[in-house]
Amino acid sequence: IELTYSHENFNESVISDEPVFHTNAPLIQIIDDDVSLLMLLKDVLEEKNWIVVTNTNPDKAVKQYFEMKPDCLILDIQLPHKDGFQVLQEIQEHNEKHFIPTIMISIKNNKQTRIEAYQKGADDFLNKPIDIQELVAKIERHLQRKRIFEQSVLIDELTQVYNRKFLVESLPRFFQHFNRSKEEFSICIVDIDFFKKINDTYGHLMGDKVLKEFAQYLKSHIRTLDMIYRYGGEEFVIVFPKTTNKEAKGRIEELIKGFSQKVFSHNDIDFSVSFSAGVFTVEDESVTMDEAFKRADSSLYEAKRLGRARVEC
Ligand code: GH3
Ligand code: MG
Ligand code: MG
Ligand code: MG
Known about the structure:
There is one protein chain. The protein is α/β, with parallel strands linked by helices. The chain is built from ten helices and twelve strands. It has a five-stranded parallel sheet with strand order 2-1-3-4-5, sandwiched between helices. Strand 9 and strand 10 form a beta hairpin. The chain binds 3'-deoxy-guanosine-5'-triphosphate (GH3) and magnesium ion (MG) (3 copies). One magnesium ion binds next to loops. Its EC number is 2.7.7.65. Keywords: Nucleotidyltransferase, Phosphoprotein, Transferase. This is Diguanylate cyclase.
């Protein structure tokens, strides 16, 4: 059989244009030197609406693994330059905190190899030639477990939006996506105005209720591709993909207006709550992630200084 693809012209890259940070589309990384297998798996797995990243070069693969933090890794044992066990070891050394299921695949289907795979950190094993149906079933199960895990550690208990831990994990993905796509995106930090006073006046439980409703209000008034995280206390971060500075400002202004009209009541006393926001839009490569975040934060500070219930860019 003639192979249409050789190692030279097979592009080690993200094949899909979809943003890799989109939580609805799992990202699967496959490391294997068998290009025809990569092509086949890519076709089949993309039909599941998964985003598939393929690598033949183990060094590039490890680099990409840390950049993208895939949702599932499929790793061949026999690779050029170094073997899959070494790849696994490099990944394990730097990766205690991430939950990335790894399925090792190999033509060496003997007990010793399988045991070594598990001992070195693989979660699962499948022998070659790959049974695609079985592989898909395994990936599905691993993704399911990963989601359950994420629900328990990446969602804020009180407000049910993503937490700071997940913000720290996903922010680099937005920047990587920007570097590839050059699609501008906006980072917005929002903070409830005089929240301490709400706690002091109506009690901590009412404060909690306001927080919950605030988070739910924001969540239900942003697009599904926008992401919201509780950064801490009464501070939240919203990331608006594919959104200009002007658009982000407009959307936040509407949110401020809408939320301020909401009526809360406590012991027959009605009150309203406002919030302030700072926006920074990533539109060129000159800013680092930390700088972008700091710029959004100083805009928030400026919004507070200028009287609150407003957004500064
Ligand atoms: P500003 O308009 O300048 O933002 O004033 P502020 O009062 O909102 O800001 P400040 O940072 O002084 O107060 C934030 C308060 O949020 C202090 C803290 O007790 C309260 N807080 C933080 N987390 C929670 C929580 O989970 N529940 C409740 N009820 N209060 C919280
Ligand atoms: Mg191989
Ligand atoms: Mg506040
Ligand atoms: Mg605050």
